[in-house]
Amino acid sequence: MKRILCIQDLSTVGRSSLAVVSPVLSVMGYQCCPLPTALLSTHTGGFAPVERLDATGFFSAALEAYRAQEIAFDAVYTGYLCSPAQAAVAADELRRCGAALRVTDPAMADNGRLYGGFGPEMVEAMQTLCGEADLITPNATEAALLAGEQPRERYGADEVEALCERLAGRYGARVVITGAPLEGGQTVCVGRGEAAWEHFTLRCSYVDAAYPGTGDLFCAVLTGALMRGNALQSAAELALRFTENAARATFAARRDPRFGLEFEPLLGELLPPREEPSWAR
Ligand code: PXL
Fold it and tell me: Does residue 142 line the site of ligand 1, with CB under 6 A?
């Protein structure tokens, strides 16, 4: 069974980061090794007060412990990190790990703004981290920041594709930009693989609410699908449709958006394709 090291925070309430990524990767048939970089009572997208326990010392010591025992991972996946110092530890791990797939979800901003507590140093640290990854999955705001540009409210379809291209060139990585708002109201997910045939634009509809942790859900499904051997576009298609369905169901149920996407009833859709039992062959 493939083993995936997931480096991000554990926020108990609100469905983000490890609380989303662990169940998704487990149901997809992987051993998820959740390495918390911090413990939080909730994510920071709307709850207050937020209780936090920084675990920078712990998570870098845990990485040392794995190395000392030569515990290897098939993939290493980094998500929300609490500080530039944590991003530097994560970058060092990506550099040294030797995993076949290194995914960085540069979770630091959305809707044109950095998340609370982050400044330009966090953008710089994420830029360095992205330079060590094979795949990066910024939303439209993060994509602009990673390119050293001002986030914009709306893009033309060609402009998102060009932004994606600039990121692929700058970071030498495959890129999937999510949630890019187009002029005219549509939203797209744009991908750049290694070859031109891997380039794609997928369209989706958005519900009229914002759920923290949506990007985490998308990236977890994308990572799991890639590890099944899917091409970038079909992996992104699965991740997009799963996320879209979870958003629709959550919106229809009129949940408090701070609690995130109610994806649990849909998890069965992510089970690995079943092999026929030997007696049926
Ligand atoms: O990736 C979303 C996320 C993860 N973790 C924490 C957050 C957020 C978004 O607000 O606050 C702690």
Answer: no
Pocket of ligand 1 contains residue 257 by CB under 6 Å:
no
* CA of 279 relative to ligand 1 center, distance in Å: 47
Instruction: Work out the angle between the directed axes of helices 214-227 and 18-27 (0-180°, nearest 10).
Output: 30
Q: Could you read off the pLDDT of 184-194 as tens digits, one per residue?
A: 878 999 999 99
177 phi and psi angles, rounded to 5 deg: -95, 130
In tens, the pLDDT along 123-162 reads 999 999 999 999 999 999 999 999 999 999 899 999 999 9
Is there a contact between 37 and 56 (Cβ–Cβ < 8 Å)? Answer: yes
Q: Pick from 6, 8, 10, 11 the residue to mutate for probing ligand 1's pocket: most ligand atoms within 8 Å of its CB.
A: 11
Q: How far is the CA of 277 from the centre of ligand 1 (A)?
A: 41
